[in-house]
Amino acid sequence: MASSPFAIALGTYISSIKRDEDKETPFYKEVIKQLDGVSQSKSLAEQSRQSSEQLANFIEGLEQKQKRSSRTRRLSDRLRPLVAGINQYLTSCDVIVQAAPEAAVLIYGGARIVLMLAQGFSSCFDTMLSIMEDIGHSLKRYSLYSTAYPASNDIQYLLVETYKNIVNFWQEAAVFFNRKPPRIFVSSIFKPLDQKWQTCRQALQNDSRRVKELALATEADMRRQKEEEEAALKQSKSGTKLHKEIVNWIKGGEDENALDTRYDIEDQVEKRYKNTCEWFLQHPDSTNWLQSNKTAALWYTAGPGCGKTTLSSILSQHIQSLRDKQGNHYRTATFFCSFNDPARKKAITAFRSLALQLLGPKDRIPDKVKELYEDDLSHHRSNLTDLRVAIEVVGALIKSQPRIHIIVDGLDECQSRDKLLDAFGRLFRILSTQSHGIVKWFFASRGEYDIRSRLRSLKVTELEAPQESLKNDVRSVVTPQLHCSHCVEQFVKDSEGNFMWTSIMLPIVKGETTTCREELNEEIMKFPKSLAGCYARSLSQLLDQSESHQNLARKIFAIVVAAVQPLRLSEVRHAVAACKELVDFTPSWLPGVNVVEKLCGNLIVLDRCGKCNKDDPYLKVAHKSVQDFFMADPGELDLPDDRVRKFFVSSQEANEMLGRCSLSYLRYLRYNQPQDTVAMLEKSEHAFLSHAATFWYRYLDEVTPTQELYDNVVAFIQSGAFWNCVWVQARVAPHLFGRYIGGLSGGFNLEATGVKEEAIDVHYGSALPKLLESEHFGKTGASIVHSFLGFVMEWHAVLNSHPDSIDRCVMDVGAVETIYEATGWKHPRVACKSFAVEGPLLAVSIGNIRQDGDTVSVLALGHKTSDLSFSLKQSFLPSSAAEGFPLLPNTSDELLDTFCSAESMIVGRVSDGNNNYWLLNARRLSVQHFASDDFLEAPSNFKPLKPVEGRWKLLSNAVNDSHSLDNLTAAFHYAQEQRSSKDNTSFMESGYGSDSDNDSITEQTEADGDDGTEEQAAPGHCMLVVISGREPTFQFWKAADFELEAPCIFHPHSPLAIWSSAPHEISIMNTTSGEVETVPLPEPADAQFPTISAARKELRFSEAGDVVYYLLYTATQLEYSVQHTVSLSALEFNYPPQDGSCALERTHLATTVTYECGGTTQHPYLLAHWTKEWLYIALPSLSCNTKIVRLRLPQDGEEATSSSETDIQTVRDPVFFPYSTPYRNPRIKVFNHNGDKQTLVLALDAEFAPKIDAEDTSTGSQKPEQDILKPPALMTWKLDEGKDWRKWDTDVDEKDKQIMDHKNQYAMLRGTFVDAGKRFEVPVRSGLNWRKTAFLSCA
Q1: Which of the listed ranges 188-192, 358-362, 714-718 does the model predict with the highest average pLDDT?
Q2: Is the CB of residue 1125 less than 8 Å from the CB of residue 915?
Q3: Residues 1184, 753: contact at Cβ < 8 Å?
Q4: Which of 288, 1093, 1157, 1333 satisfies CB 3.0 to 4.6 Å to 1117 for a cystine?
Q5: Is pLDDT above 50 for 1001?
Q6: pLDDT > 90 in the chain, percent
Q7: For the Nephrocystin 3-like N-terminal domain, which residue ranges apply (predicted)?
Q8: How many other C-beta atoms are found inside a 10 Å radius of the C-beta of residue 915?
């Protein structure tokens, strides 16, 4: 039996019906009577299925009867909602209320008896069916909510109430229909039942609404509970996640071996001789320091080689073994500065390591640390690189500890000692301002003056190493090995407590062939008493080696001491072999591993720890004093033997040795041929290649140049081996080709590429030695430097970010003349040809590019340097890279529209001796006709509210080339670069020609606002239309909220020009009358104009002029990238519209493609080329890895809704445009040749040097003598129609690969070769003045 309160309530209701119902009614006889036969062993679900089948059978029989009576309505369809609703409702009752099976009999049976009785009332039977449909829908609607929230008591209550309402209605309906049907049905007869139904329906609706409300409330409560549970779990997980994120931030990409000092401590403690350093733990100063219950600082000083690092390690381990009153071990944070480790000699590495040790895995992260982390992230800094921030992090972590011991060894070995001391001083001041736990500071270093003065100012107690204590430790070491007490005492006396001296001299003593104690003592008396003498004595042992081995040792010492970064054993072996200036690599010339190790002795150690391969260890000097010793002047040293002098080299000698062996290595014959760089760098036979390529110029910059060295460098750069060097540099040290932006503070920011801004002096990496600039040795070197800088400027984005594609970077004519460009190093399908200067003619732009069969002709515009006359020259696109690119005179009439200077456009006919053209100046928005000398400015009815500041820029141009020159029509879209104004008036005025200058500007009125503030108004736009025989027409409009390119096009047969200056509209200009009309433009359905940052709305007429193809490009600026969307629509052009129809109506579905890449938007937004079948598009970045896409144009006869996977295609291989492309009026074309062959052509005008006010104010024309940086050029890519195009793959093509890789740009540019903890250095040159240099050091 059901036992829930709601099941009992439902059972009580059913019992009351059985008791109260009139036994003579059909409802009692046909429904209630059946309750007595229900088996209590059945479940509600079983009884529900049985009752549902009975009702369904009855409905089916009733439906058959109605068919015989010629009734057409299908009962089963109309009553299906009722049966389904009751079934779902009872399922809820079974699960939630646990009702008895009688509930099913009553509700199903009630429906059946009502149908049975109502069939006699044909006039209202249909109404009853509608009522039952409503009941079914109501039950179905809220049963979904009830089953979703079975634990809700309120919903269970409503289930019971709904049951009562339905059964009560069945009862009342049965009473109504249990009467003799009237002969004539009057609507008023049904009115009582209708009132009953309205009451019941309202109750059902109320129940349904209440169920929904309760469900929402229950859901909200459940969601709250779930959110609380998830929040608790998330907090736990996020705490762990945040902890990991902050740890990674603190690490700053540093090598973990440099940050983790545990193994250093273990290694030092293991090397410790028994009972040494015990004196320190018992010294009064150290015991007072450690045992006092207040913050204290102790500085331990000792000479070089006296065991400071070992003592610091022992102290750290000792403190960790101690426990506080609660039984917890004391915490320590230890760091060892090391001149021999590129990372550990940086101040910020010390603070990173200390911070990581202070932040345990279970420690709560201080709010201050979170705040500093989030602030760095908000400024796109994923690594802790600012020392000031690192100091605050360590300070916050110290404050969170009740007691902490901080041990820092080797203050004197830090590369930037002043920064480190200043940092600790700042940290002391931070801690002195707020309360915190006990901090025990311990520093160790040599007792140098600057360190002493700084630490004394911080009230740090100095403990100078007692001489006797150090000697006792030495005595403990040597006593077991000399077995002569007198000799031991003499040795200890001579050692002066220096362990470095002891470690070098003890093996020598043990190796002497003495016959008695007196001889041994005599030999000890001869030992040098200083470290320098000790080192010299060690070197003197090499004098017993062969002359060749002595020379080899000298080279090893010089290379190891002077190397920019530590070298591996294999690198040293290859470098030594290269010193022989071999023609090519020969393995037999490599010195043996055992020989190298033997010659290193105890002055050069082989470091097999850390990330180095143990079989290929790093070679490092044993101690900082060893490096100082080798760099010292041997004449000032007390050497035991003058022959030892041969092992000393000056800094210049060492750098020359490394520079020459690097140059010799790079010039090996094998590197004169193209190589697989990745595979090559992984092979041991190229061990020294990365180092030589990365630093060769650095070493040569430190030597005195000679003619011989100059000639060798020039010969190298003019060989194929130089390009192998460039490939290696791009792979392992891409920062050498980085872009460096000068900041206000005098520093530089490194980036892969960026938009060119004339006001900013950008520097570029220039990894060439300075000796090339010396004209004393010749002029070739300077030309090389200039040409190579131009190459880097043009292709830096490929060099530093796409090293596999350097073969697609082509040089201009000037560079080829000075730098070797072998065919094997170039991609066979990529070519570039420039239009060089010929005599007095200066080529400035490319006019028309046409195809006649398989011949492609190129028209280049030039002007004479002596006057303003222009000349047109013709050339032919070479069929092979070996062919020349001659400029041939052309005397035929040519219609031309192209740039003739940096800011001037020419349109008209230009040929030898016959000029008739218009000259348009973008800066002043002025026009000059060179047939009549009429000078026209902006019209008088162009009335901005305030004077227009800044310049105008040309965004697009078009010429109606279907007409003759005598009927020239051309249009130019200009935009204002900046305009400051509060513009509350219309900016859609237009006019012809120009009036006086006085009318062009009006005063601002008071109606413009009274708040006294000035807003930055959006720039204006102008469509300038030039028509032969008339003054130009200026059409102005106000800019939208996004940047816009709106090129104009001309109708092929009618005097119409059209452009789209705003979303959803198109401007149609009658070029005969000058009238402009605006008509609606159907935009693509997915166009999102409110969110975009830039747009290009380009139109194209079909040959017949009855279809307009509409290219809509939009750019949306995302956080770190730009999303580019291109849509192609086909619109029927019906102008003027007939019978009230639209001028433009869509004929086919729009084709849309989306592409996301890095950077920002810049003009031009894309390049497009239209053919009869395809629209070819070059998507950003137009200054590097350009995305080439083509969209198929809808054709007549194709289904309007049809679409094919091949309608959008892209090229298989990457296409790279030069960096200057956006600034050289770029255009693309695709030419088809015989078969499936194609040529993609990129036309680039001359690039002009920035020049302040190059404008002639008297004429408005651009002075022709403005400097040209690069001549006009054509780049071509050979394509195969069948092989090089593939369908667009959304998964692969919608995002640039570098975005998908989520590369950290700085880490990427840093490269893989320069030590992660080391500052990398790079020579740079100004992009504005190639002779302006700087040498940057980057962290």
Answers
A1: 714-718
A2: no
A3: yes
A4: 1093
A5: no
A6: 24
A7: 275-446
A8: 17
End-to-end Cα spacing for the chain:
80
Residue with tokens 């086909």: 1130
Whether the CB-CB separation of 1277 and 830 falls below 8 Å is answered with yes
DSSP states along 716-770: HHTSHHHHHHHHHHHHH-GGGG-EEEEPTTS-EEEES-----TTS-EEEE--S-G
- As beta bridge partners, residue 1027 has 969
Residue 116 identity (one-letter amino acid):
M
- Kind and range of the H or E run holding 253: none
Query: How much is the average pLDDT of 620-644?
Result: 79
DSSP string, 448-506: -HHHHHHHHHTTPEEEEPPHHHHHHHHHHHHHHHH--HHHHHHHHHHHTT-HHHHHHHH
In sequence order, the 6+-apart residues with CB closer than 8 A to the CB of 188 are none
Residue the block writes with tokens 């200066």:
842
Query: What count of other Cβ atoms lies within 10 Å of the Cβ of residue 197?
Result: 21
Quickly count: other Cβ atoms within 10 Å of residue 642's Cβ. Answer: 8
Tell whether pTM > 0.85. no
Determine contact, residues 290/440, Cβ cutoff 8 Å.
Answer: yes
The pair of structure tokens assigned to 1295 is: 């995002």
Q: How far is CA 1144 from CA 243, 666, 1023, 1135, 1309, in A?
A: 60, 65, 22, 8, 51
859-865 contacts at long range (C-beta below 8 A, 24 or more positions apart): 859/890, 859/894, 859/896, 860/835, 860/887, 860/1272, 861/896, 861/898, 861/900, 861/906, 861/910, 862/835, 862/887, 863/900, 863/1264, 864/840, 864/1264, 865/840, 865/1264, 865/1265
Cβ contact 419:276 at 8 Å: no
Q: Dihedral angle at the C-alpha atoms of 1330, 1331, 1335, 1336, nearest 10 degrees?
A: -30
Of 266, 403, 436, nearest in space to 325 by CA: 403
Closest CA to 354 of 387, 308, 306, 315: 387
Beta carbons within 8 Å of 36's beta carbon, 6+ residues apart: none
Lowest-pLDDT range, 1029-1038, 1045-1054, 1150-1159? 1029-1038
Average of per-residue pLDDT across 465-476 = 88
| Burial of 511 per CB tally in 10 Å (0-12, 13-18, 19+) | exposed
Strand order in the sheet with 604-607: 567-568, 618-621, 604-607
Which distant-in-sequence residues (6+ apart) come within 8 Å of 169 by Cβ? 196, 197, 200
- What are the tens digits of pLDDT across the range 133-142? 878 877 765 5
Residue pLDDT, tens place only, 943-967: 333 445 557 888 888 888 654 546 7
Residue partners of 939: CB distance under 8 A and separation at least 6: 991, 992, 993, 994, 995, 1000, 1034
Give the alpha-carbon dihedral of 246, 250, 255, 259, to 10 degrees. Answer: -110
Mean residue pLDDT of the chain comes to 79
Q: Is 228 exposed, middle or buried, given 0-12, 13-18 or 19+ CB atoms closer than 10 A? A: exposed
pLDDT higher for 1140 or 573? 573
Which is higher by pLDDT, 1136 or 1174?
1174
DSSP readout, 1018-1071?
Answer: PPEEEEEEEETTS--EEEEEE--SSEEE---EE-SSSSEEEEEEETTEEEEEET
Nearest to residue 1019, comparing CAs of 996, 990, 986, 1042?
A: 1042
Q: Cis omega (within 30 of 0) on the bond before 138? A: no
* Cα three-residue angle 564-565-566, rounded to 5 degrees: 130
The answer to whether 391 and 369 are in contact (CB under 8 A) is no
* Average pLDDT over every residue of 21-30: 78
Residues 6+ apart with CB under 8 A from 144: 88
Cα–Cα nearest to 1000, from 952, 937, 954: 937
pLDDT at 591: 93
